[in-house]
Records
---
Amino acid sequence: MPGSKSTAELYADYKIKVQKIADVRNALAVLGWDQETYLPEKGAGFRGQQITTLSTIAHELFTAPELDNILQALKGNTDLDPVQQKNILLSTEDYEKNKKYPAAFVADMSRVTNESYHAWIKARKANDYNVFAPALSKMIALKKQETDILGYEGHPYNALLNEYEKGANTAMLDTIFNEVKTALSPLLTQIEQHPPVNKDFLHLHYNRDVQWQLGIHLLKDMGYDMQAGRQDISEHPFTTSFSPQDVRVTTRIDENDFGNMTWSCIHEGGHALYEQGLPTEQYGLPCGEATSLGIHESQSRLWENNVGRSLHFWQHHYPRLQQLFPENLRAVSLSDFYKAINKVQPSLIRTEADELTYHFHIMIRYEIEKGLMDGSIAVKDLHHTWNEYYRQYLHVTVPDDVHGVLQDIHWSHGSFGYFPTYSLGSFYAAQFFTAAQKQVPELDNNIIAGNYQPLLEWLRTNIHPFGRYYTSNELCKKVTGKELVFGDFLDYAKKKYGGIYNF
Amino acid sequence: MPGSKSTAELYADYKIKVQKIADVRNALAVLGWDQETYLPEKGAGFRGQQITTLSTIAHELFTAPELDNILQALKGNTDLDPVQQKNILLSTEDYEKNKKYPAAFVADMSRVTNESYHAWIKARKANDYNVFAPALSKMIALKKQETDILGYEGHPYNALLNEYEKGANTAMLDTIFNEVKTALSPLLTQIEQHPPVNKDFLHLHYNRDVQWQLGIHLLKDMGYDMQAGRQDISEHPFTTSFSPQDVRVTTRIDENDFGNMTWSCIHEGGHALYEQGLPTEQYGLPCGEATSLGIHESQSRLWENNVGRSLHFWQHHYPRLQQLFPENLRAVSLSDFYKAINKVQPSLIRTEADELTYHFHIMIRYEIEKGLMDGSIAVKDLHHTWNEYYRQYLHVTVPDDVHGVLQDIHWSHGSFGYFPTYSLGSFYAAQFFTAAQKQVPELDNNIIAGNYQPLLEWLRTNIHPFGRYYTSNELCKKVTGKELVFGDFLDYAKKKYGGIYNF
């Protein structure tokens, strides 16, 4: 009985229970990693079943009344130290949120997700949004139901936003995406008036093995600990963690697209450095988990863009790159290389977008999700709405649904409220990097010298070690002295593209 | 309540419960595979914890009273078909055996196994059996206790033998190992009088990548389904299965020892073909599990030795091998190659022994284990006993404990009764292969032509599909018309070595 135990004993019981759940989830992550990297073709069926079983077990363990009893007994107990108190608070929140979902809803969601995913696959094959629309309607009806289950203040979409980024809401995101529209649009217009930048040489033949070696080299340079991780090949690059001591990245290599591997490798490396920097003594506990998706994305984007697409970064790496691919790059100056890898060009596909137009892609999805949740956008017209937004903000004509509304997997999975974290990640990254440049002596010179240790140390001190102890908002204020603002990203973008496009 | 359900409903419940346990065990197997192949160095600590958690969950699920209730309700129910009845019978046996172990014994065993393993490591470093002896004493005391827990007829060792090979006992093994002594000893004497065979060319430099390709080629030729499996590198080769649709092998490559990869690859391939041939519709149920360790080993050894070390096999493969390694093998005739790969030479280390002297290594371990269990051999003198046996049966002088009593990991793990299954595997293999030669038209000619399909089909019809439906003894009688006898192995050995050593 919890009542008869000391606080320390109860907290020890709590840790055992929660870490056991983490063990199961991390085992699931291993099965997932294997599925994307090494699983033989025919193994998929039974693997799916094994994953379902472990997921069910993790869910059962997490909803067990024994855990509830311990959490109730420890809630608000001030004998616990602040980190322990925070763990209990967050686990209680997680537990109570989990309990809100009626079994019937969970079963419906599972069924509709499956249906909707297969409809999306089918619609893509047919290149016809109408094939997806009926399943998407059901999904959206369920997501609306979910907003009621979870509860919200203000806009119903807030309930879903909060799932991916605690504290995010339409008030905050409307402000930010309005700035995207009003401040980035003129920038884009200025850039479009500039003669086009040549990046054809990035699409010559880049040998697979040399690319692989380059990727490993960059990861090691960044400070990714290869004794606590490894890189493998998968169709879609991702980072996965089984503990801070085993954080794995994957990449893909396109021999006709130099950028594909390079920046995805740096991007995943940024995610992985964060996971490797989480406190091992908080393994499996909330304070050992990433703050939020937005903060996670800030780490990948900071490395990918603020560092990895900077002139400073390539001042160090470009001479070596020319040696690795002499035929392709011997005649290309650093300046032309730098311009090419930062070429801004409005396009149809989000995942191929440059650093600037990317946020229009996200803003469009944000507006659509918000409209779907409050009913101002109809599911059946979604492809038209989509195409109109792309014409308006990105000045491109969507030729068909595969290059339009059917391009992302997210909605078919029921991930509504996820997209905004991608933009939040970039904006946090700019704000963090600006703070780092102020706080770390000689940061830029160290990057020019290929030394990322001072930057990593700053991240390891200011961002990585806290897990969910702070919310993203609290962390941002603590590190930068202010809440998330769009200004730092705008300054960064103006400076960077002003330099490249002469304005 | 089981009472209110139909037989079909109860059986469906049984399947769900048992297959859920299988899912957890197979997830554990994935974690184990990853640990031996790709786990980064620092990941070992948390991985160990994750493995412990999943093991505990599998144990809890298997000892849950709900499963017991269903088993009790279905036991002896003749509405079930014979395979279903067998599954219930075997699951009940497994369940009841599991229940026999008192929690205190399980805890003691876990502690002593850990202690004993570390003592063994330490003893090997010190090259001193006396460092291992105290922990081994404790282990043996526990194993004796285990024989009482499990119960036995006749010799206490029978309880442990039965764990690894159902139905095996000292009466049967005394008979078999007596024949090893009386029939193989004269053969060995005859061979020792022959001028030594040269196998130096097997230890020239064999390129790693070419060896790897050869291994893959051999596995595919054998009929190993690469879409339902894969090969990776590990320190110690092994086969592991997550379902019949995902059966993986590992190998190691020594560039100065051609045989190391080659026959371990064929050996693991034999294990893997068996696992790929188990019935998928019996996934996770006893009739979907390998018959026994002895039968498993029969499949690896049949391919490794009866096929893979035969002249017929290399008549097909040797010309290609000479092309792969022209500098090493151009001047070596097929006949000399065949003699070299079958060279008989008494030696100190079991894992490096040839096909013939191997069984003396096992026989010695069998005698020792039996003696330890009935007290006729004392733990403190074990190294002396060991060395004396090696002098007597293999005519070799053991120079130190690392090359003697400390060479195998098994006892430090508490695996007593395991070793005999290695010899049983070879003897089953000879008996099965003899039967196949009689039953499959043109079997030898097909092997000469590099076509293993008829052999695999025979195995897939006669051995693989039954799982634990038959015991090894029943299976052997069904396939060969008689119980396991030593005679087929002896005939095989006489014919093979008579050919090589001219007697």
---
Amino acid sequence: MDGYRVAVVGATGAVGTRMIQMLEETSLPIDSIKYLASKRSAGQVLKFKGQDVTVEETTPDSFENVDLALFSAGGGVSKKFAPEAIKRGAVVVDNTSAFRMDPDVPLVVPEVNEQALYEHKGLIANPNCSTIQMVVALEPIRKNYGLKKVVVTTMQAVSGAGNLAIQELKDETQAYLDGEEMQAGILPASGDKKHYPIAFNPLPQIDVFEDTGYTHEEWKMIHETKKIMSDQDIQVTATCVRVPVVVSHSESVWFEIESHDASVKKIQNILSDAPGVVLQDDPEHQIYPQAINATGKKDTFVGRVRADLEQNNAFQLWVVSDNLLKGAAWNSVQIAEKLHELDLLRVPK
Amino acid sequence: MDGYRVAVVGATGAVGTRMIQMLEETSLPIDSIKYLASKRSAGQVLKFKGQDVTVEETTPDSFENVDLALFSAGGGVSKKFAPEAIKRGAVVVDNTSAFRMDPDVPLVVPEVNEQALYEHKGLIANPNCSTIQMVVALEPIRKNYGLKKVVVTTMQAVSGAGNLAIQELKDETQAYLDGEEMQAGILPASGDKKHYPIAFNPLPQIDVFEDTGYTHEEWKMIHETKKIMSDQDIQVTATCVRVPVVVSHSESVWFEIESHDASVKKIQNILSDAPGVVLQDDPEHQIYPQAINATGKKDTFVGRVRADLEQNNAFQLWVVSDNLLKGAAWNSVQIAEKLHELDLLRVPK
């Protein structure tokens, strides 16, 4: 075998199409590729490096002769088919929330906890988009200064809710500009009872509400951060907001560190050397990360590094990244690349 | 005299037109009204309660026989003409930042510090829009539990930057939908060097940058909050973000209180009785404040009240209000109503 036999589950979705793009660009050796999706999408023809690939309906047997399966077709699909894939010898990188908090499943952002890959039992979970870019920015700071507490407010793009949500934003926006009524059918959460317009209207709900008053998206940011950083004592609290943006999440992050010896300059230096981070921080010349500039790029962009002027161990950041790439497709393919590099791209016996 | 002779300075602007609307609805007795603006806007004809009023160019003599002058035409205009108005016997309510931090000028949100009106010397400053709605929500909590620290992230509507910024958002949005290039000429700050698209792109800059790395808008939230609440020890830090929204600011507010005896339920009860606040907080039924619902209303809408799950004296709120009404025009007219009620609508000898 020269390369891997790869399957993309959810190939027609907003993340799936980016997974294909990331696989076209990867250094990972690929022998063959298979696009899987629901029955509804089967028969569609997509490209891979210029060649036609017909989308097939996902069945257990789809995973025969597959070495690597990238899943991004919803938690239900992952729960049903990931075990079938692993049983047939495929390593699964799952972009859904189905297995993220399973103690037997590594939850990996390569820049942060690559070493967790050694523990995999056939399945590695890709964290939530909003968590990934935050931990990429905070990990180098945590390593140097310790991390006590994080208060984050996100401004998340609608593409995190899929292609239909992108279309909904565009349709509502055009209706608003034309003075017509906006029709909401998907956002804030397709599975919830009520739907509200997102055009020109930030919605402080992503995913459904928990009993605590937090949404499940906020819950994910809190608990995934602790798991990825392997530290249950880091306090994290979050407000997750959907905003009228197509691609790339922006995050306002306040954080408290253990050390009292940090400074804006030192943190900027740490970030400019950090893996996966691009520091864009020059207020004098109005340089700071923006969603439209981050879109299509694999990096996490960090700027507006500044001190809490009244607490000498607290700072703030503005963190922007393409939610479909580093937040999903790229992080998944990057995990596969790391597995290959560490000779872990096989289901352990 | 049966009523007051009122002048609106900046009558044709985004805030000015709302000031006129608020004056049409006010219980304040009004004998006559005068619309003032720049030379460029002079000659336009606007309505007041169905009657035509011709906009006049602002000159020092415009304020002869004026009892109350509402200013919202930029700091430069206020600096030049507010002293002329006061000299001629008018009480000035100024919506610009020109005099807000002057120790001799009360900075007033009637729900919070009405008593400061007794100290006025002819001029009362109206705080910054993003500050007003935050202090309306936090003051009742501060009164009950003490307030130690606030970490706020705003999502501010473009109307805060005026009518031209609204048009810029709409033009850019249409260009984006049509697949054309977006042309930015005003935002993030008309007076700054570079301009970036706001359509589908949150911009973490409102007003210009200070040496600390904070923008002047963030500086305002920090220092105006301390002044309005008469407590320099309240720690406040802010990230102010312009978002593609036409009207109404949304704010994610994390705060720490002195007391360890508060609860979500108690805070909800306090907020539901608080002046100027409408509690919209029922996650189970997806009830929370939204910009499109707050627009055109005078109240501050508060929801998503929840506990910081790892710090028992910290909580979070989602606060939404019409930035042109409570954030500007309504707060100014409300100040005038209070001055009248307290028999203070005259320049002290």
